[in-house]
């Protein structure tokens, strides 16, 4: 498919966003469980359950994207027999991740009664969440003739922003509940610190990605070409909404005194969720132009 033709559309965007968010929620949920599962039980249960639901939605979207349900099974058979395509390598990872998320969520119905078994599935979930978060970037990176996607840094941009969006979801869960907001002030402060660091790393990774793209001309076109709206879309969607607004709100929240303002945190968490989506839309759109 030639550059400028849009063969990657809404189903791809939905799949990559929900799997990225599901992976981020799983990572946060399991890390909170390892930290103190009794104290954070309500947050962990909700995070892992949301992760499982989003992962199932992602698999359904993937089947729709493949065109026919039997093609999803064929991708797994192709992996076992040949392993020749990126899709055939990533589908089993997503299925393992989804299965671990669903089982972990089920074990969180009565977390105290099955701690050892639940912990096993949480470890599987955590280990599979990282490749699941990388999957969308790996898939795009493997696409032929898409010059702007051709660096090994791209998958990490998707992983980092998936975790940031998940921080936004967990943050909203906390601040909407007065009891949780008062109880988890220390967690909110820690989340703000991680957010600042992740946004800084994402910004540096973005620069590195653009520097190491094999075709400098494609990057120059992206940054300077006003038609077909390549530069404005990238600056608005990726730089301003995807990185700029979250970074601004993150700095404001990081520099604010405790107890943290709910209004400040609300703007931060919404900007993280929307920013991850804007980043993905911009990258998916721009990568198909050149």
**Mean pLDDT reading:** 85
How far is it from the N-terminal to the C-terminal residue, by CA?
11 Å
Low-confidence stretches: none
- Biggest sheet record: none
Label the overall shape: globular
Content-based structural category: mainly alpha
Explain what you see:
The chain has 290 residues and is mainly alpha-helical. The chain has 2 domains: 1-145; 147-154 and 182-290. It has 11 helices and no strands. The protein has helices at 10-36, 41-66, 69-81, 86-107, 115-141, 154-175, 178-183, 185-212, 216-224, 230-255, 262-287. The chain is globular. The termini are close together. The model has no long low-confidence stretch (mean pLDDT 85).
Keywords, separated by commas or semicolons:
mainly alpha; 290 residues
Question: Could you provide a short overview of the structure?
Answer:
The protein has 290 residues and is an all-alpha fold. It contains eleven helices and no strands. The chain has two domains: 1-145; 147-154 and 182-290.
Write the layout of secondary structure elements.
Blueprint: H1 10-36, H2 41-66, H3 69-81, H4 86-107, H5 115-141, H6 154-175, H7 178-183, H8 185-212, H9 216-224, H10 230-255, H11 262-287
């Amino acid at each position: 498919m030639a550059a400028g033709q849009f063969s990657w559309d809404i189903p791809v965007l939905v799949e990559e966003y929900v799997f990225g968010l599901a992976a981020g929620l799983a990572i946060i949920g399991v890390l909170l469980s390892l930290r103190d599962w009794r104290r954070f039980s309500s947050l962990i249960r909700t995070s892992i359950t949301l992760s499982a639901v989003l992962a199932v939605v992602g698999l359904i979207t993937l089947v729709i994207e493949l065109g026919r349900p039997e093609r999803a099974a064929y991708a797994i058979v192709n992996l076992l027999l040949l392993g020749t395509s990126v899709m055939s390598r990533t589908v089993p990872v997503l299925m393992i991740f989804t299965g671990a998320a669903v089982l972990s969520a089920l074990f969180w119905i009565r977390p105290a009664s099955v701690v050892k078994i639940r912990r096993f599935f949480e470890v599987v979930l955590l280990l599979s969440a990282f490749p699941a978060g990388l999957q969308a970037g790996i898939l795009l990176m493997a696409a032929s003739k898409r010059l702007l996607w051709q660096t090994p840094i791209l998958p990490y941009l998707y992983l980092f922003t998936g975790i940031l969006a998940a921080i936004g979801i967990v943050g909203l869960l906390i601040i909407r509940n007065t009891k949780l907001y008062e109880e988890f002030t220390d967690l909110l402060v820690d989340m703000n610190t991680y957010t600042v660091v992740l946004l800084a790393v994402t910004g540096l990774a973005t620069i590195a990605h653009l520097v190491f793209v094999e075709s400098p001309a494609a990057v120059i076109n992206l940054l300077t070409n006003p038609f077909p709206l390549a530069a404005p879309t990238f600056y608005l969607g990726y730089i301003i909404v995807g990185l700029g607004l979250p970074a601004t709100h993150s700095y404001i929240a990081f520099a604010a005194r405790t107890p943290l303002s709910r209004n400040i945190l609300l703007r931060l968490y919404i900007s993280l969720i929307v920013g991850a989506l804007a980043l993905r839309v911009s990258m998916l759109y721009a990568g198909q132009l050149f």
